[in-house]
Design brief:
Serine Threonine Protein Phosphatase 5, Tetratricopeptide repeat, five-stranded antiparallel sheet, alpha+beta, 15 helices
């Protein structure tokens, strides 16, 4: 036994550093779309995208919106701890999710505490991100959620040009909205929109996020004003116009009649081939149905997005968030918790 332990210890000490960074991403160029991976060295990171240089072939740029995960190069001495933490994080969907999160947090914190030199800046930033998101995902009480929001807020302020920024702001805004801080949530997105050299795609995503925050806070006149202003600045053929017009329909939620609004959204769903547009229309239909007390119908609308039209990350996150609220209305805590866990893993 002593010999085996000695050999095991020797092997662990001899484990080399991860030789390459590995990026897992949504490959929209593939038909049908698929999950892709690329290994190499991450050479640049911004709020818009990352660049990675494989050992063979040209440098590749990947949109931040399409990144699923990055596993960065880790010093050999911490490789075992890092892999254990990653494995624990992967068990969050299992029967002992709470212990998995505790183990993952302990592992990531241990790795982070060992990193001192500037060469590991990307890894250090990603570990801070992982820790903040895991803490937010496990928070249950209002006090714990607001404490998690503080950590997320620190991250966004300290890393205003990181590829993780949009996910952090989404999580931060969700906590603030849940706790009656819709103005703070909207401001966080407004601050994001002011980041220099923000791509058109990220700007448009942020624009829609601010409108959605205002609508969740039932500030429909403000939301409509932003929608009208945005439409006025775009050519009629811009894809963003179609999305904004769906939000305009959603703004009618309080005063509109279901038999007028729902057919409008159904027509969009039936006519468009764009899965992102379908997802937005289904989510908006669910919002209208929920506001009018048709909670079971709303659930089915959101489930269409979760199960079928989940290609757009922001709409998929929105559908899961809404499903949590629906299941809580049904006093179905099992399904609500299931979606809370799924949402935390997806941010």
């Amino acid at each position: 036994m002593k010999f085996r332990l000695t050999v095991l210890a020797s092997l662990l000490l001899a484990v080399p550093a991860l030789a390459e960074d590995v990026v897992t991403y949504r490959d929209r160029t593939a038909k049908p779309e698929k999950v892709g991976t690329v290994s190499g060295t991450v050479t640049d990171e911004t709020v818009n995208s990352i660049k990675i240089k494989p050992n063979v072939g040209p440098e590749k740029e990947i949109s931040a919106a399409d990144i699923i995960e990055i596993v960065y190069t880790v010093p050999g001495a911490m490789l075992f701890e890092y892999q254990n933490a990653r494995n624990a994080e992967g068990r969050r969907s299992g029967p002992d999710a709470k212990k998995a999160i505790v183990d993952a947090l302990a592992g990531y914190r241990k790795v982070l505490s060992s990193l001192k030199d500037d060469r590991s800046n990307k890894l250090q930033r990603h570990l801070h991100y992982k820790i903040a998101m895991l803490v937010a995902g496990q928070a249950e009480s209002k006090e714990d959620k607001l404490a998690a929001a503080e950590e997320l807020d620190k991250f966004r302020k300290a890393n205003p040009n990181s590829w993780q920024l949009v996910s952090v702001v989404r999580q931060l805004a969700a906590i603030w909205i849940e706790n009656g801080k819709s103005e703070e949530a909207a401001k966080a997105f407004d601050d994001l929109a002011k980041v220099p050299n923000l791509s058109k795609e990220v700007k448009q995503e942020v624009e829609l996020a601010v409108i959605d925050v205002l609508m969740q806070a039932e500030k429909f006149p403000e939301a409509e004003a932003k929608i009208s202003s945005a439409i006025g600045q775009l050519p009629p053929t811009d894809p963003q116009v179609a999305r904004l017009k769906i939000y305009q329909i959603g703004c009618q939620v309080k005063q509109a009649e279901l038999d007028k609004v729902v057919p409008q959204l159904n027509e969009i769903i039936d006519k468009t081939a764009d899965p992102t547009l379908k997802a937005l229309a289904y989510n908006t239909r669910g919002d209208v149905q929920f506001a009018k007390g048709q909670k079971k119908d709303a659930m089915w609308s959101y489930l269409w997005v979760d199960v079928v039209y989940n290609q757009d990350k922001s709409e998929h996150l929105k559908a899961m968030d809404r499903l949590i609220k629906v299941f809580k209305e049904f006093n179905d805590e099992d399904h609500a918790r299931k979606y809370e866990d799924k949402l935390a893993r997806s941010r």
